[in-house]
Amino acid sequence: MNVLVINAGSSSLKFQVIATDLERIRNDNDELLCRGQVEHIGGEAIITVQSHNGSRQKLTAPIRDVSAGLDYVLRWLASDRSGIDEIRSLGDIHAVGHRVVHGGELFKESALITDEVSKGIEDCIDLAPLHIPNNLRGIRAVREIFGQATPQVAVFDTAFHTSIPEYAYLYALPYHLYRRHRIRRYGFHGTSHRYVAFRYCVLHGITREQTHIITLHLGNGCSAAAIRGGHPVDTSMGMTPLEGLVMGTRSGDLDPAIVNLISNKEGLSTHEVEALLNTQSGLLGISGLTNDMKVLQDELREHDDRRVRLAMDVFCYRARKYIGAYLAAMGGADAVVFTGGIGENSSEIRARVCAGFEWAGLTVDATKNQDALGREGRISTDASRLHAWVIPTNEELLIARDTVRCVLGEPHPS
Ligand code: ADP
Questions:
Q1: Is the CB of 342 under 6 A from ligand 1?
Q2: How many CB atoms lie within 10 A of CB 303?
Q3: Fewer CB within 10 A of the terminal residue: the chain, N end or C end?
Q4: How confident is the model at residue 54 (pLDDT cuts 50, 70, 90)?
Q5: Strand (E) positions, 229-301?
Q6: Where in the chain is CATH 3.30.420.40?
């Protein structure tokens, strides 16, 4: 089965086509046929496509909306120009999986998109008003282009976290606010944390129930999850992705009274303050330079800039604090697992986040850490009681696999 995986944003569309089926899932030999993205939708868009035979193309075209972007990509995929033998026409794409940012309390697992499921996703718009409409546009665009017969599946960023107990997801606010508006912590990056936990099981030959780990997704967005018995018992992002760790441009945790204070002192509306916390804060805000960790690392090496150092210090300290909190919340763990662009590629940040955990039995092996760049591997010493791992994430693969299972009515793996 060739599955088109779609992540539709406000002005961008990321996609992959993955050949997979139940047999391939069992044998772990799914095949990525192509990947790409359409950026700057709404104007002169840039379309980048890379096929599995290695050819990479960058194109530009006026693209008015998500539907037009998808139409462009699909026509290109089915043409000779793509060089993908497996896709000769739209009929060679058998199902479509969507990353949907929020499933509220309704969606505890991935779902075949029916009218009822579409309505359920619409009911979650209040929880993620900036993102869900884009996801729905992607779903509608697929229906327009492929027709009703091509099955579509929604894979929710929040679903993995629905096992988190009430005492961990509830804010200490008047309870009626939860009842009236569903104000609680939901968590995000669920597909990434779930993939990493799944790979950890496979690599160790253990069952899901035996999986007790802390996963750290450190990319542009950053989040941690405490996974006990294969299920999250806590996670750092909250009602929105703003809570928790320090991120590229997001502040993460802060005193909520600061919102009003900034609003008064700087003459900004609360909406503008929220935008500032989401887009001007985090690594970018403290360094005053960039949200890009690789650039910050290079800058620190070359110029030893004080604010760059501070941004990295705050970032690592917050991540360390969460590991400590989760060790307490979970009653200990077997490993800390790093993923995401920073987690997979920065041995320096990993070493700094893990520093000072010898009391918990974690010692990083400098050579192993240096060697594990963008690939799976243990980075702690053999003698460690609490291990550290790098496991590159692959959300698209999990979305494709969930799509196959939902289309075939197979139960999700327990
Ligand atoms: P997104 O959350 O947008 O998917 P990624 O997971 O790709 O982002 O992570 C992007 C972050 O990873 C950026 O801060 C980038 O600088 C960082 N990164 C990527 N490679 C390296 C590297 N070799 N060293 C340090 N940071 C890196």
A1: yes
A2: 9
A3: C
A4: confident
A5: 231-235
A6: 2-161, 206-390
pLDDT band at 69 (very low <50, low <70, confident <90, very high): very high
Name, in order, each residue with C-beta under 8 angstroms of 58's C-beta and a sequence gap of 6 or more. Answer: 46, 47, 48
Q: How many CB atoms lie within 10 A of CB 306?
A: 10
Q: Residue 256: is it exposed, middle or buried by C-beta count within 10 angstroms (0-12/13-18/19+)?
A: exposed
For 118, the token pair is 């579409």
Confidence of residue 414 (pLDDT cuts 50, 70, 90): very low
Residue 83: predicted pLDDT: 81
**Is the Cβ atom of 151 under 6 angstroms away from ligand 1?**
no
pLDDT of res. 413 = 66
The answer, yes or no, to whether any atom of ligand 1 lies below 6 A from the CB of 297, is yes
Question: For the domain 2-161, what is the CATH code?
Answer: 3.30.420.40
pTM for this predicted structure: 0.96
21 is catalytic: no
Residue 32 and residue 85 in contact, taking contact as beta carbons nearer than 8 Å: no
